[in-house]
Design brief:
Its EC number is 4.1.2.-. Its cofactor is thiamine diphosphate. Helix content is 37%, strand content 13%. The protein contains 27 helices and 22 strands. It has 793 residues and is an alpha/beta fold. The termini are far apart. Helix 2 packs across helix 4.
């Protein structure tokens, strides 16, 4: 529907219209001031070049639209006593959101030196995009923000993540029409099929069509209205259109649109919560069409600006050097009539603040936008209840992720009433052996259910959608608003969210330096169906590089764990789920894996992060001749198999076996909080002996982490070399030269004096690899000596 401004005129009194427009004009004035001014904030004297910043940075084009939304959200929050927050998709419109939080007082409460007067306004203006100041985006420094919008596409999935399990919360979400062109945003429209109107809050998308990106028109803005309506209705929304460039008419239409949308949302929730309605509702969406750079310069240097792409960033770029630009800027600022908006001391006048809510109802003060304030400890069970018994290493096998699934079932059950834990993943919960959780909660689903379907649940907290972007966005929004969760994904395809996790890590790094931001639960990844056991799916499913990507990021915020068996996975998962303000990456297999450590041993080993498995080696009192190191479940098995071969074939050799769980332990202590000192590293790996390291991922990562160590020249790493196909499990390690036979050959090649003494042993290892090659091409399975191998130490 489109809002008829003649009908809308009855909604607002003239006084209400006047005060709403005053707030909006004040926000626009403050937005322009932040982009341009470093002095003379109230224009108490004619504007001079020295009042203008030497570098003009920021985005004006979207700001007036964001200010309009902020103003009208204030109105409905105050009138309806709503608990609401807003996700600002065009986060580059940072001046608008900063302006809104300063007007309502939340900015000054957060930063007392930025007072609500002329002095504070001057500081507000100067600090924006200024050295030592604040960023131009809706950054973590902005009160009320939980979405920076630096990279576009994630606003709507963040909004839904915030709304899940928050039944009293309204999450407005402004979606820019440029952002609407991205794949992640397009997929996230489907989030309404997972929104439970009984236990979840509501999301009100506001699609802001101002027509242009940086230099081009936007797709949705150029669609005829019936075609756009068909698209949005196909997504399950009922659109409400607000279109115009006359401020009074747009204010009236926007007020009616907001009231209409909120009335519909209330009716949907009432029907579900009080009347037991079970059909999937159609949720409202507001389509707001206003000019880009609205109320800014209509024309600059003879070229149109307002309503065009030229309004995107800084419409007047030469203010310090061009007197005409300076005059235009002053006229632009004075067009908002600042003397009507601020008193002689620079404080906002009563009309400006008439629509502003009180206390925690203000958008900049809502605790959901500082979710750590609401966070509760996760009720995690004792690990002994789920640990697998290990009387001796390598005697039994379990599927590690299936064991973890039993623990996650209990976590899901223990949070049934609290509803503050969710498991997300792209259609892989059962595939990744976590299906035990279905006994405690089904899969969230509001669409059609057929008789053949399993575990679908209108009130479920397991979330599956075949869009890694949407899973990531949901979980980020959920965590940022004070809850807990786990993202389970195939290892190769978690790369799809590389950019998203970049943004989240940057957010965490900044919030750690903001004392008013309370710590949130960590973003936890469980990566399974990993490179070494995607032998059936083949090369397309084989990529362990997400770990490399993560370890490039801020050391204070990232952790990577490679547990070698079920009990170490339990220990690592327990630690990750208890942690705060990290991104934890856990890589663990779902296939049957030997159990190496008891629960007590696993705890101790995980606490160390790396340690000697003395039961696996043949080290004598004089120290090792060689170190066999491993990180990851399959590399661990191959190293132990190699150690067994060396024990039998070269019993006189002194072999030390080292297992690494926490990969950051390899870094120097001054570069990562978990890193080892040189003394620790040399004690574990020796400063001068050969180290043969079997690693789960790309070998060069280990070299990069350890390149400064004394013994780096003795380090030889085997891992994935981007060689893969559909083949047998053992053939994967053979193809990448990480198999047990190759590791034994590496030992012989690198331990001084062995090349001659052990030439026959090396030849037997080479023969075994050739035998393997012929065997699998005849039988289609691995050699019996490999398939039936067990630890005999």
């Amino acid at each position: 529907m489109s809002v008829d401004t003649r009908q809308a005129s009855a909604l607002l009194t003239d006084d209400e219209l006047r005060t709403l427009d005053a707030h909006w004009r004040a926000a626009n004035y403050l937005s322009v001031g932040q982009i341009y001014l470093m002095a003379n904030p109230l224009l108490t004297e004619p504007l001079r070049p020295e009042h203008v910043k030497p570098r003009l940075l920021g985005h004006w084009g979207t700001s007036p639209g964001l200010n309009l939304v902020y103003t009208h959200l204030n109105r409905v929050i105050r009138a309806r006593d709503l608990n609401a927050l807003c996700i600002w998709g065009p986060g580059h419109g940072g001046p608008a959101v900063v302006a809104g939080s300063w007007l309502e007082g939340s900015y000054t409460e957060t930063y007392p030196d930025v007072t609500r007067d002329a002095t504070g306004m001057a500081r507000l203006f100067k600090q924006f995009s200024f050295p030592g100041g604040v960023p131009s985006h809706v950054a973590p420094e902005t009160p009320g923000s939980l979405h920076e919008g630096g990279e576009l596409g994630y606003s709507l999935s963040h909004a839904y993540g915030a709304a899940y399990d928050n039944p009293g919360l309204l999450v407005a979400c402004v979606i820019g029409d440029g952002e609407a062109e991205t794949g992640p945003l397009a997929a996230s429209w489907h989030s309404n099929k997972f929104l439970d109107p009984v236990h979840d809050g509501a999301v009100l998308p506001i699609l802001h069509l101002n027509g242009y990106k940086i230099a081009n028109p936007t797709v949705l803005a150029r669609l005829p209205e019936p075609e756009l309506d068909a698209l949005l209705k196909g997504y399950g929304h009922d659109p409400i259109h607000v279109t115009g460039d006359d401020p009074d008419a747009v204010h009236r239409a926007m007020a009616q649109a907001m009231d209409t949308a909120l009335d519909r949302i209330a009716a949907v929730q009432r029907a579900a919560r009080e009347e037991g309605a079970g059909e999937r509702p159609r949720w409202p969406v507001i389509v707001l069409r206003t000019p880009k750079g609205w109320t800014g310069p209509a024309e600059v240097d003879g070229l149109p600006v307002e309503g065009t792409w030229r309004a995107h960033q800084v419409p007047l770029a030469a203010v310090r050097d061009n007197p005409d630009h300076l005059r235009q800027l002053e006229a632009w600022l004075r067009s908002y009539r600042p003397e009507e908006l601020f008193d002689e001391h620079g404080a906002p006048r009563a009309d400006v603040l008439a629509c502003v809510p009180d206390g925690a109802r203000r958008l900049g003060s809502n605790p959901h936008a500082n979710g750590g304030l609401l966070l509760r400890e996760l009720p995690l069970p004792a690990l002994e209840r789920y640990a697998v018994p290990v009387d001796k290493p390598g005697a039994t096998l379990h599927e590690p992720t299936r064991v973890l699934g039993d623990l996650l079932e209990e976590v899901m059950r223990a949070t049934t009433d609290r509803r503050d834990f969710r498991l997300v993943g792209p259609d892989e919960t059962a595939s990744n052996r976590l299906q035990a959780v279905y006994a405690a909660s089904g899969k969230a689903w509001q669409a059609q259910v057929l008789q053949v379907d399993e575990h679908l649940d209108r009130h479920g907290r397991v979330m599956e959608i075949l869009s890694e972007h949407t899973c990531q966005g949901w979980l980020e929004g959920y965590l940022l608003t004070g809850r807990h969760g786990l993202f389970s994904c195939y290892e190769a395809f978690v790369h799809i969210v590389d950019s998203m996790v970049n943004q989240h890590i940057k957010w965490l790094r900044v919030t750690r330096r903001l004392p008013w931001r309370a710590p949130i639960a960590s973003l936890n990844y469980l990566l399974t169906s990993h490179v070494w056991r995607q032998d059936h799916n083949g090369f397309s499913h084989q990529d362990p590089g997400f770990v490399d990507h993560i370890l490039n990021k801020s050391p204070e915020a990232v952790r990577v764990y490679l547990p070698p068996d079920a009990n170490t996975l339990l220990s690592v998962a327990d630690h990750a789920l208890r942690s705060r303000d990290y991104v934890n990456v856990i890589v663990a297999g779902k296939q049957p894996c030997f159990d190496w450590l008891s629960m007590d041993q696993a705890r101790a080993h995980c606490a160390r992060g790396a340690g000697i498995w003395d039961w696996a080696g043949t080290e004598r009192g004089g120290g090792p001749d060689v170190v066999l190191a491993c990180a990851g479940d399959v590399p661990t098995q191959e190293v132990l198999a190699a150690a067994g071969l060396l024990r039998r074939q070269l019993p006189e050799l002194s072999v030390r076996v080292v297992n690494v769980v926490d990969i950051a332990r390899l870094l120097p202590s001054e570069e990562h909080p978990h890193g080892m000192t040189d003394f620790e590293y040399d004690g574990l790996f020796t400063p001068d002996k050969p180290v043969i390291f079997a690693y789960h991922g790309y070998p060069w990562l280990i070299h990069r982490l350890a390149y400064r160590r004394t013994g780096h020249k003795n380090l030889h790493v085997r891992g994935y070399k981007e060689i893969g196909t559909t083949t047998t499990p053992f053939d994967m390690v053979v193809r990448n030269d990480m198999d047990r036979y190759r590791l034994v050959m590496d030992v012989i090649d690198r331990v001084p004096g062995l090349a001659v003494r052990a030439a026959a042993v090396r030849q037997r290892m080479e023969d075994a690899r050739l035998r393997h090659h012929d065997w699998i091409r005849v039988h289609g399975t691995d050699l019996p000596e490999v398939a039936d191998w067990a630890w005999d130490g």
